[in-house]
UniProtKB/TrEMBL annotation:
Keywords: ATP-binding, Cell shape, Cell wall biogenesis/degradation, Cytoplasm, Ligase, Magnesium, Manganese, Metal-binding, Nucleotide-binding, Peptidoglycan synthesis. Its main location: cytoplasm. Pathway: Cell wall biogenesis; peptidoglycan biosynthesis. Signal peptide: none annotated. HAMAP family: Dala_Dala_lig. Its cofactor is Mg(2+); Mn(2+). It is an enzyme of class 6 (ligase). The keyword Magnesium applies. It comes from Fodinibius salsisoli. It catalyses: 2 D-alanine + ATP = D-alanyl-D-alanine + ADP + phosphate + H(+). This is D-alanine--D-alanine ligase. The gene is ddl. Residues 149-360 form the ATP-grasp domain. Cell wall formation.
Length: 400
């Protein structure tokens, strides 16, 4: 078994499940014929962890039930040497053994929910596994649009005016929220706080639209945000690759949609197919904007990437007033669709080079982590400490 197994992790309990599969398949295809052996880690829509060769073929995902039956349950574990492995939890035959794959690094290709919000990254940290992309802090913060914008506002990065609320607040006092929306002024944009790919995002031109949009968005998230619509709107995105101490920016792009706010269909089905992921979306690259505006957005992207302590590859999305060219931070995608490879191709880096660079950055960050003191010898479990615990037990008994 190769000592350089790359675990490509994807799927997950998320409305963006299918988008994640597409990004993973693109990454897997790009890493063929490299020094790495690719091992898939597919998380089903119900949260099961599976591995196996059938998961490497995109066509098999047309029949998920059949694919799941062909795959093998697995989990992270440690082998006899204490090294992290991806271990099958079921034998393939009565006399067979559970396969173990020593982990060189993990390449997360999740979008949304537990895969992108830091939870999976936390599991990697617990098992001391090197992984590509942002660490737990940036991942969790980037997934929460409200907290992300609060951080940007605190660092002087412009954001659109708005407010947020949860389902309990809506049920308790809907009138207060609709009044707050009225004061903000229509048209407004309603969006789930912790989702991406424009799922659940809607525009409201009046209170009736607002109520309908809120009820729909609550199907996807318990927390929603309402923001003043930027008009005339121009969306501009830029990708950053690296780490806070060493990063580079891509060219900018201007996505094209059928509406003022890009929908899921605009992003993933604009060519009548989802097979190309974000690469299928209509866009202008490099963005047809002035050099001055391009420089501002690239500079802001670098500042935000560093502020979030992000790493690996991220895409920074901005809302721009097409008349005034005022720029507003919209969100940071710590695992962008298709890893934003289409932006890096325009910057002179192909998909394979991008994936190899991501793995390299992840390995470097892991080395930096394990090079620090990670334990501290104390005498807290000494006999004296144990006597103290016994004393507490005695106090409890006396008082009962």
């Amino acid at each position: 078994m190769s000592s350089k197994n790359i675990i490509v992790a994807f799927g997950g309990v998320s409305p963006e499940h299918e988008v994640s599969v597409l990004s993973a398949m693109q990454a897997i295809a790009s890493l063929e014929d490299t020094q790495y052996h690719i091992v898939p880690l597919y998380v089903t829509k119900s949260g099961r962890w599976l591995t196996g060769a059938p998961l490497l073929d995109l066509e098999n995902y047309q029949d998920l039930d059949a694919l799941i039956n062909q795959a093998t349950p697995c989990t992270f574990a440690h082998n006899d040497l204490g090294k992290p492995v991806l271990q099958e939890t079921e034998k393939k035959s009565f006399f067979g053994s559970r396969e173990q794959y020593p982990i060189h690094a993990v390449l997360p290709a999740f979008h949304g929910s537990e895969g992108e919000n830091g939870a999976f990254q936390g599991a990697c940290e617990m098992y001391n596994i090197p992984y590509a992309g942002s660490r737990v802090f940036a991942s969790s913060l980037g997934m929460d649009k409200v907290k992300a914008k609060e951080l940007c506002r605190a660092h002087g990065i412009p954001v659109v005016e708005g407010f947020d609320f949860d389902e309990a607040e809506w049920a308790k006092d809907q009138q207060a929220i609709t009044s707050q929306a009225q004061q903000l002024g229509y048209p407004l944009i309603i969006k789930p706080v912790t989702l991406g790919s424009s799922i659940g995002v809607a525009r409201a031109d009046d209170e009736e639209d607002l109520i309908e949009a809120v009820e729909t968005s609550f199907r996807f998230d318990n927390n929603l945000m309402v923001e003043k619509a930027v008009s005339p709107l121009m969306e501009i995105n830029c990708s950053i690759l690296g780490a806070p101490e060493d990063m580079q920016h891509s060219v900018c792009e201007r996505p094209l949609g059928q509406e003022e706010t890009l929908s899921f269909e605009d992003k993933y089905q604009s060519d009548g197919s989802r097979q190309k992921g974000m690469a299928s979306a209509d866009r202008i690259i490099p963005a047809d904007i002035s050099d001055e505006l391009t420089d501002k957005i690239q500079s802001l992207s670098r500042k935000i990437f560093k502020t979030f302590r992000a790493s690996g590859v991220a895409r920074l999305d901005f809302l721009v007033n097409a008349e005034t060219e005022d720029i507003y931070f919209n969100e940071i995608n710590t695992i962008p669709g298709s890893f934003s490879f289409y932006l890096w191709e325009e910057s002179g880096m192909n998909m394979r080079e991008l994936m190899l660079k991501l793995i390299e950055i992840g390995l470097k960050q892991h080395q930096q982590k394990i090079g620090r003191i990670r334990s501290y010898d104390t005498n807290l479990l000494s006999e004296k400490a144990m006597k103290g615990i016994k004393g507490l037990k005695g106090t409890k008994q006396e008082s009962s």
